[in-house]
Amino acid sequence: MTGPLLDGHLVVDRVGFRLDVRLHVAAGEVVALLGPNGAGKTTALRALAGLHPLTAGWLRLDGVELDRPDARRFVPPERRPVGVVFQDYLLFPHLTARDNVAFGPRRQGLRRQAARQRATDWLDRVGLAEHARRRPRQLSGGQAQRVALARALAVHPTLLLLDEPLAALDARTRLDTRAQLHRHLADHAGAAVLVTHDPLDALALADRLVIVEDGRVVQEGDAGTVTTRPRTDYVARLVGLNLLRGRADGRLVHLADGFTVTTTDRLDGDAFVVFPPTAVALHPHRPDGDPHHTWPATVAGVYRHGDHLRVQLTGAVTAVADVTPAVAAGLRLLAGQRVWATVEAGETRAYPVNLP
């Protein structure tokens, strides 16, 4: 077939909320849906799985319509070539690991012995062959998640859905399981959609990022584009950048209350400006120098961030600054304190608000 393996316009109405998302995924591609809580990520995944019928729009997989309300077409979940890995695994507690994995193939009509053999093969591929006879309560979190992955892949799904697959794991297990999951996703010939709120999972596992806020796609693209050119405050926070909006005139961008910043990029018109928190310096008094890069601010909060302290600044310009503990101690930073902030011009980047 030509075009994307998954082609969908997902419209779902709930009380007080509407999801309206266009989504396309190519064969062999992994797309990550990211967004804050309540953005609509889980609703989108449930619509793809057939657990929540569309209100409008369509969903096509490998050229077959699975859901199209205006044509009264709806394929129930059990008849869709879709595998799902849930956040909490949802393994059958009374079945062994092998029988959990064999459940899907059996539902597809495979004979008991053949289904068990396929399950054994998949457990071997995820490194759990020796745990085939164990029940879920006898498995660690990482082992249970790998069984859940094997169960999803054993049905040879055209579409693989992963709902926060690493969220329930501790840090070390998460690191190991993420590496194994990456390997299996690379071998998966179908389309895959990963729902997550963790940027590390998305960047490590996905080929493309789709950012959803308030039920709408606000940005999408490869990791390099999204992480260097965020288009909303949520995305900027996600990738650790300050994001401001203003009017560009050459290398100057005019922001709120007359504040102007010089950037390394030249453009004209509505523009975003980004810079890292490490590019912001704080001073007890207005410093000498170029006034284009200086503004008064109020400390809204101070909290530890790695080896630095992150300072939340409010006022005409809202930003965060990363300072060393020694600098923070010297300034005696407290919530409500007035300071002056400067940003290094060489670390500011600008790009158009309106994409070409």
Tell me what you see in this structure.
The chain has helices spanning about 40-50, 95-105, 110-125, 140-155, 170-185, 200-205, 225-230, 235-240, 325-330, and strands at about 5-15, 15-25, 30-35, 55-60, 65-70, 75, 80-85, 160-165, 190-195, 210-215, 215-220, 240-255, 260-275, 280-285, 295-305, 310-315, 320-325, 340-345, 350. It has about 350 residues and is α+β, with helices and mostly antiparallel strands. The chain folds into 2 domains: about 5-230, Rossmann fold; about 240-350, RNA polymerase II/Efflux pump adaptor protein, barrel-sandwich hybrid domain (OB fold (Dihydrolipoamide Acetyltransferase, E2P)). The strands form 4 sheets. It has a 6-stranded mixed beta sheet with strand order 7-8-9-3-10-11, sandwiched between helices. β16 (about 310-315) and β17 form a beta hairpin. α2 (about 95-105) crosses α3 (about 110-125). The model has no long low-confidence stretch (mean pLDDT about 90).
Which features does this protein show?
single chain, 356 residues, alpha+beta, Rossmann fold, OB fold (Dihydrolipoamide Acetyltransferase, E2P), 2 domains, six-stranded mixed beta sheet, five-stranded antiparallel beta sheet, 9 helices, 19 strands, 26% helix
Overall shape: it is elongated
| CATH fold name of the largest domain | Rossmann fold
Distance between the termini: 30 Å
Mean pLDDT across every amino acid position: 91
Q: What characterizes the major β-sheet?
A: 6 strands, mixed
Please tell me the total number of domains. Answer: 2
Strand order of the largest sheet: 7-8-9-3-10-11
Please state the second-level CATH architecture of the largest domain: 3-Layer(aba) Sandwich
Spell out the helices and strands N to C.
EEEHEEEEHHHEHEHEEHHEEEEEEHEE
Beta-strand residue percentage: 35-45%
Q: Which structural class is indicated by helix and strand composition?
A: alpha+beta
CATH top level label of the largest domain: Alpha Beta
Oligomer: single chain
CATH superfamily of the largest domain: P-loop containing nucleotide triphosphate hydrolases
